[in-house]
Amino acid sequence: MEFSAQDLLDQLLAAPHRHTKDAPRDGRGLYGLVDHLGHLRYIGSTKSLGQSLYSRIHAKHRTGSEHLSHYFSTMYNTGRMWRQRLDPATQADGGIAKKLRNTFIARHCRAVWVVLPDSADIVGLEAEVIRIAPAEATAWNARKTAVYDEPVDLVDETIRHLGWGDREKAALERQRQCLNAASGRMPVAQTALAAVSGQGPNVLRFPQGPFRFVALDVETANNDRGSICQIGVACVRPDNTIVTWKAHVDPQVQEWRFTYLHGISAKTVAGAPLFAEVMKVLRGALAGLTVYQHSGFDCSAITAACQKARLSSPDWAWRDSVQVARKAWPELEGNGGHGLANLKTVLSLSFDHHDAGEDARAAAQVVLLAEQVGQVIPVSAPPKMAVPAPVRAAVISAPTIAAAPAVAQARAGALVLGEVELTQGNIDNSHIYLRGFFDRFPADAIGGSNKGAIAPRQVAVDYGGGAPTMTDLDGSKKFFRDRSLARAFFARHDARVGDFAVVEQLGLYHYRVSLRRS
């Protein structure tokens, strides 16, 4: 099988950014490392037969010793995450710093990969891909970039996640001071950042677009909406990957009523920029973009903080993701509601509530999921897909099934893509083959043969038993990759060999599966 370096590079650049722990344990190939700002910075490969993508990315680059060919460890050997491996005097504190760094990378950095067969010339393909890759995508290769300055807000969040107390925090502070003593007060990367961004060393550089839309969240110190102590922005790229920016803000208040919720206190924001400094970054960065908030609180808080700082309020195009969620999942009204806490459970979202960056990312995910179930007009059009021609469905009198009615005809607004006669293999293995009409699904939702090759887009599949499941399609086996709800679907309907699974399209990236008795 021939592989094109350009095709492989395109796949790496378009691949969804995944947690390092999700890298395939039994696959080899090419991979890329993505920094905490969401930028691809390093391209590598599994060079030996015994090395998997998981062992190379998650076990080596993330947890390996700094100063070797372990690039996550090397690039984030900074600030409170710094250690000097061979220094016995700081070995105990260094061990704590290394654990912090390992956890930081797992939580805030990402990776991409393309699985290749062992027969491929993986090392040769790696060299070709690196040769033609954009310079910024290989900025870490051959150590062409200085070590990062510490992302203070994200490190603070990681420490809270670990639940560390005064002992560990004191050890980390000693490590930071050791680094400063060895290299001077300001690391090289911070000086470069201030010069490039023009934002000063206290405000984290905002990610580079283009973005389809953003979601914004704030945390406040007390009941005064202008007492903003943290701002988070989740930026959604054209391929629907999300990069998150956040910053602590010094609200200059005495009352800290909500520290118990978000963990932010006067000590946390000591030395943080004032709201006016942060707005210098955000005002221009968000100009012309749709800005989602989850409820109207965040817009009113920004307005109140602007008034306190004697600034004009930004004329951003605000939208409310709560309203989006209400249209997409009306059944939640009176059944837990549409707040982030309930949506986290219902939609299987993963985030830490009451962290501005995490909550902003969750709001962005809500909008993306609502787009996929066809209940919100995308801010910019997603990739075009072939819309199947309507299929006239026969009207069949279906028998009543105990758990739920069987569906035997296309319902209003739905397009029947096809019917699949169930085999014992389908029922035993919880899948429905879509081979007869697979070309009617959008190409950007079709992935490879394993979880390491998931497609950049997902579709919503409604099996009639609650919230839809989000999945891509396995392009090799030609079925929906996530089979968890198919198993429940077969059990709920007491599916039998010879019954038919009816697959309908309800909207863009939204499908429904129902059962027709044979």
How is this structure best described in words?
By secondary structure, the chain is an alpha/beta fold. The protein folds into three domains: 5-191, no CATH class; 202-372, 2-Layer Sandwich (Nucleotidyltransferase, domain 5), CATH 3.30.420.10; 415-516, DNA-binding pseudobarrel domain (At1g16640 B3 domain). The protein contains 16 helices and 16 strands. The chain has helices spanning 5-14, 53-61, 71-75, 91-108, 122-132, 152-162, 166-183, 188-197, 259-262, 275-285, 297-308, 321-328, 340-346, 356-372, 424-429, 484-492, and strands at 28-34, 40-45, 110-116, 213-220, 228-236, 242-248, 290-293, 317-320, 415-421, 446-447, 459-462, 469-471, 473-474, 479-480, 500-507, 510-516. The strands form four sheets. Strands 6-5-4-7-8 form a five-stranded mixed beta sheet. Strands 9-15-16-11-12 form a five-stranded mixed beta sheet, with no helix packed on it. The chain has a three-stranded antiparallel beta sheet with strand order 2-1-3, sandwiched between helices. Strand 4 and strand 5 form a beta hairpin. The longest helix is centred in the first third of the chain and has 18 residues, at 91-108. It is globular. The two termini are 42 Å apart. The model is unreliable at 184-201 and 380-413 (pLDDT under 50).
